[in-house]
Design goal:
This protein is of the alpha/beta class. About 50% of the residues lie in helices and about 15% in strands. Strands 3-2-1-4-5-6 form a six-stranded parallel beta sheet, with helices on both faces. It has a six-stranded parallel beta sheet with strand order 11-10-7-12-13-14. The chain is elongated.
């Protein structure tokens, strides 16, 4: 009988252990909790097994099993949970039946385990958080500074991330970890952070709604980052980052490894929009001449319905990116896009960009030594209720066989936006002469895109706050790679020099991509690429970035689109097929005839609109045209030691650039430089000095000539559009 009971006790102990393990495994799978309060359920079975062993031992020893014996045995069993045993009671049966040794040990362990796990379950979330934070820090996670709505949203979208809980109360800390959000509580001080961020390589993200002083954050991480601990990513627009860069970050660059970038939710959305939906993607091919100029009797309109933060950034981005050309009397001319802004709030219709375009532009370029640059766009600001009859009549008048119109709706909420888009659609006949775009936050899970109503929805916020958009932004990386491959860099490492030489010798875009990816597999080379990028003046960073963003616009103008490759065999169209549409007679002659730049081939058209795009960027970044009086001829020596003439036509510190003129105005700049540098020389189209000065033009064509290889080198393919 005693042996049978011993076996039963052993089976019961094993069963308790199995149930404890199973319960915790299920808890981890379902909710990620390492310890669960369900372990308390096993305290009673563990107690009963230990109690049964002691009662059996008492019977074996010949004690009378009555009420008092059973009652006193409770105290004896409770002593076991204090790791005390009644040897006189247990040893006799254990010596006779050795299985009781195992019974008691397993029962005591089961009791201790259930007791410890039950107690720990009250602190399980904190324990889970502690373990998760340790794991994430070892994995070089993203660190979001502070507790805010945007910070929590980013953490939910990005698994390898945690919140840096600066000034988080105990109550809020408990709420956050209850939501399953890993939180590291630490003061915003370099010494305190240094003890936590030991591994290095972290990306620290600061959202605007966290309400932290950016200068304080920069100062703190300037001390910390000397050890390469982290990179800072601040939610700030281009102008804010410019101030931070000039006044704070640049000063710190000399004595630290400070890496600071800026991002803006609405700018990220606007960037994505001009890449995914360039206006040239939708304009009918019948609107274009063969050389990609827009026909003179055709007009392009973009209508913003509502002008809050979203449409403000979209307008800013579109105005810089969407530049078109027409042909007049055998010469190229600007074909400005017509922008119509509809809102009934005065505050929304007064901003620095409207002022820059409608007032400051004319003021600052009223007296120029070279031709005044083309206007950025035609702007029509309408302080009108969008539900008025006049507004709807105007919308209808903007759609005809000779106009193409994009309507961009961004009002108060998704359903209102979608409803108004349907109103606009109802006003217009079904045709290919317009498109309707609607901003959809989709925070409540509305599946607006699934009903096939022909309206294009964009700007889902949940997709914006991700590692891929903020930290690993593929558009910025594209600009960084282009800058790395095609810039002249003094003291470049051997691997880059070798690759650049191969590119000059005609290395294909696909081979460029493969070799560049092989080199960037080394983290040191990625760091080198990023340092080159950060070393650029801020205006040149912006210029390179917007050049990369403009690639889909130019390609769609030619009738192509760029698509990420799905594999090595996914190649798209050939370069020969591309060159049937990109016509450039100057390339084969190596640009040895200056007169080529004034042709009207498709390459000239693309160069013309690229110059206007560049003008728009610099003008909106407060640059002015440089005066002739500020351009001085200098005697210099080239790399080979030969004396040369040099005449600077830009001063970035003073925000002056003589190239801020028309495309044909560049010719006047070149003639002025030629006569100033070589007063006794005769201007000839094939003269070496003329062609050297003509780099002003040639650089744009060099960019265009490598358009195919540049895009394929970045892992994209070209496809023909419908």
């Amino acid at each position: 009988m005693y042996l049978a009971l011993g076996i039963i006790f052993l089976i019961a102990c094993i069963a308790i252990f199995a149930m404890i393990i199973a319960t915790n495994v299920l808890s981890i799978k379902k909710g990620g909790k390492i310890i669960t309060k369900k372990n308390m359920l096993y305290l009673a079975p563990a107690f009963l097994v230990i109690y049964g062993i002691h009662l059996t031992a008492a019977d074996f020893n010949g004690r009378q099993i009555d009420f008092l014996c059973c009652f006193s045995m409770i105290g004896t069993v409770l002593e076991v949970f204090k790791f005390k045993t009644d040897n006189d009671l247990l040893l006799p049966i254990c010596r006779m039946y050795h299985i009781y040794y195992a019974d008691f040990i397993f029962a005591a362990l089961a009791g201790a385990a259930t007791l410890i796990l039950s107690a720990a379950s009250f602190f399980s979330r904190r324990i889970t958080n502690f373990v998760n934070v340790k794991k994430l820090l070892k994995a070089n996670c993203d660190i979001i500074l502070g507790d805010s709505a945007d910070a929590v949203q980013y953490q939910k979208n990005t698994k390898c991330s945690l919140l840096l809980g600066v000034n988080v109360t105990r109550q809020r800390y408990a709420e956050l970890i209850k939501l399953g959000i890993p939180v590291l509580r630490v003061p915003l001080e370099a010494k305190a952070l240094a003890g936590k961020l030991k591994n290095g390589g972290y990306n620290v993200i600061v959202f605007r709604d966290g309400n932290y002083s950016y200068t304080k954050v920069i100062e703190t991480f300037t001390e910390l980052i000397n050890g390469g601990a982290a990179k800072l990513h601040l939610e700030a627009n281009q102008h804010e980052m410019k101030i931070l860069k000039e006044k704070f970050i640049t000063k710190a660059d000399g004595n630290s490894k400070l890496y600071v970038t800026g991002f803006s939710k609405y700018e990220l959305m606007a960037r994505r929009f001009v890449v995914d939906h360039p206006v040239t993607k939708y304009i009918p091919r019948s609107f274009y001449n063969e050389n990609c100029t827009v026909k003179n009797d055709k007009d392009i309109n973009i209508v913003f319905i509502g002008f809050g933060k979203v449409n403000y950034q979209l307008f800013r981005m579109c105005a810089m990116q969407f530049q078109l050309a027409q042909e007049k009397d055998g010469k190229l001319a600007s074909k400005p896009v017509q922008y119509y802004i509809y809102d009934n709030k005065d505050a929304s219709l007064h901003n620095e960009f409207f002022s820059r375009i409608q007032f400051e532009f004319d003021e600052e370029f009223s007296v120029c030594d070279f031709p005044k640059p083309e206007k950025i766009c035609d702007l029509h600001i309408c302080n009108t209720d969008i539900n008025s009859v006049d507004a709807k009549k105007k919308f209808k008048s903007l759609v005809s066989e000779n106009t193409f119109t994009c309507f961009i709706v961004s009002l108060e909420n998704d359903l209102e936006d979608a409803s108004y888009a349907q109103t606009v659609k109802r006003l217009l006949k079904d045709s290919g002469s317009y498109r309707i775009f609607v901003r959809a936050k989709n925070n409540n899970g509305e599946k607006l895109n699934e009903d096939g109503d022909g309206i294009i929805y964009f700007g889902e916020e949940k997709q914006l706050y991700t590692h891929e958009n903020i930290i690993n932004d593929d558009l910025t990386e594209l600009a960084q790679r282009i800058n790395l491959l095609y810039s002249k860099i003094d003291g470049a490492p051997k691997w880059l020099c070798d690759l650049q030489e191969k590119i000059e010798d005609g290395l294909s875009g696909e081979e460029q991509r493969k070799q560049l990816n092989e080199n960037l597999a080394d983290a040191k080379n990625i760091e080198y690429m990023q340092k080159l990028w950060l070393a650029l003046p801020y205006i040149e960073q912006a210029s390179n970035l917007y050049h990369a963003l403009n690639l889909p616009f130019k390609l769609n103008l030619l009738g192509f689109d760029m698509v990420k490759k799905s594999g090595e065999e996914d190649t798209g169209i050939s370069e020969d097929e591309f060159n049937k549409y990109y016509k450039n007679s100057g390339r084969s002659a190596e640009y040895n005839d200056y007169s080529f730049y004034f042709n009207t081939e498709s390459s000239n058209v693309l160069a013309y609109i690229e110059h206007n795009r560049w003008n728009a960027l610099y003008i909106l970044y407060d640059f002015k045209q440089m005066k002739k009086a500020d351009m001085v001829v200098e005697d210099r020596v080239d790399k080979e030691g030969k004396p040369i003439k040099f005449m600077a036509h830009k001063n970035l510190n003073l925000k002056q650039h003589a190239c801020i003129t028309t495309y044909y105005g560049l010719n006047e700049l070149l003639l002025y430089k030629f006569t100033s540098m070589y007063p006794s020389a005769v201007f000839k189209n094939d003269d070496e000095n003329v062609l050297n000065l003509a780099k002003i033009y040639e650089y744009d064509y060099m960019d265009l000539d490598r358009l195919y290889s540049e895009i394929t080198a970045m892992g994209y393919k070209l496809v023909k559009t419908n």
